[in-house]
Amino acid sequence: MMRVLRPVALAAALAVMAATPVVAAPAASAQTMRDRQWYLTTLDVAAAQKITQGEGVVVAVVDSGIGEHPDLDGQALAGISYLSDDNSLVDDSGHGSGMAGLIAAKGGNADHLLGIAPKAKVLSVRTMTGSAPAPGTWTRIPDAIRWAVDHGAKLINISTGGYLETGSWEAVRYALDHDVLVVASTGNAKEFPDRTAVLDPASIPGVLAVTAVNRDGKVWDGALHGPQTVLAAPGVDIPLASAAGGGRVIGYHESTNSTSNAAAIVSGAAALIRAKYPQLPVKDVVQRLIATADDAGAPGRDPEYGYGRLNLVKALTADVAPVAANPLLSGVQGAPDDEVGSHTFPNVLGDAIIRMLTIGAVWVGVLLLAGLILLLTRRRRT
User: If you average pLDDT over residues 248-255, what whole number do you get?
Assistant: First the structure.
């Protein structure tokens, strides 16, 4: 049966952030931004960054853009904007900048955020603004994935989701075929109250779908989850860089909760792996992340934690045997019918055409049936 994907984008509100952060520099007596980054200790990021800091790796951030912020100076690469203003280095919602900071903020003193991979670069691929487009408009995620692959990204972070366009499966396969890993968030229940499953594109086979855990390592109760969940990472009480744009001052969001955060942290971890093992194919990058994860929840892979919680240092140092095939593609036969072929027209238009054709077919059937009845009636009379 054909699966219809409706092209409704997720708003940048996937990260539950305050609208106008005003924290420019914490007072000496208050917690610093570094203090608030509790996950740096949980993941032993200091030890990981003694091994590598992500040099030479480009992570595409498919999101709302990346704006100006001192913690991101020199870190962001101009990419492409699929919006009307054609500027990728601007961020009206703040979501993309926050994700970029989690991945590659350069740190400095304790009043600045430190990314997981501070010497990696983040490539801005802007696909959305501060609110979801109207139904029937494009989020352009499949195009964004292909563009990022073709322009040097070794990783793609998609901390957004929803019901995306036709072509998403093909775009993910295109990335994997070109040795590029796609990391995506499973989604937040608050933004999708009618949804009980992992969002697209995280639900697509081959995508590393990430859910969020809190300080205690428990899965966040605001996360969507399902059998597609691959990994769990910190996503609760996470501070974010707030770049200029959309009426915001440059500063920080002191505490946010979302699977978006968790996906960005895993993208930073994957950037460290790709920096340490530059010849390692994407299938083995995935294997390193899942084979070294700390099992949680039900034994083995489960719908809430996936293979378990991210263990960053172990992922960088453990002896992990290579695999013959990507473990996230095991048993996958191919894309559903609606993912094959061109996606020139929005699905909302396709749905309308299908409805018109269906209605037309019904009327043709009614007329034919009426004609047949009339013909039989006349024959009986004669």
Answer: 91
Query: Residue 143 to residues 101, 147, 249, 261: CA-CA distances in angstroms?
Result: 24, 6, 31, 23
Query: How many beta carbons lie within 10 A of that of residue 255, not counting itself?
Result: 14
pLDDT higher than 80, residue 25: no
Helix (H, G, I), strand (E, B) or coil at 158: strand
Q: In this structure, what token pair is assigned to residue 215?
A: 């300080």
CA distance 127 to 57: 22
**One-letter amino acid of 29:** S
Half-sphere exposure at residue 363, Cβ-oriented, CA atoms within 13 angstroms = 6
Q: Determine how β-strand 238-242 pairs with β-strand 251-256.
A: antiparallel
Angle (deg, nearest 10), helices 282-291 and 259-276 = 120
pLDDT of residue 193: 84
* Ranges of each domain in the chain: 12-339, 345-382
**Tokens describing residue 358:** 């269906």
Tokens 């390193």 sit on residue: 288
**Domain 12-339 sits in CATH 3.40.630.30:** no
Report which of 275, 227, 220, 218 is spatially closest to residue 103, judged by C-alpha positions.
Answer: 275
d(CA 328, CA 264): 19
* pTM metric for this prediction: 0.83
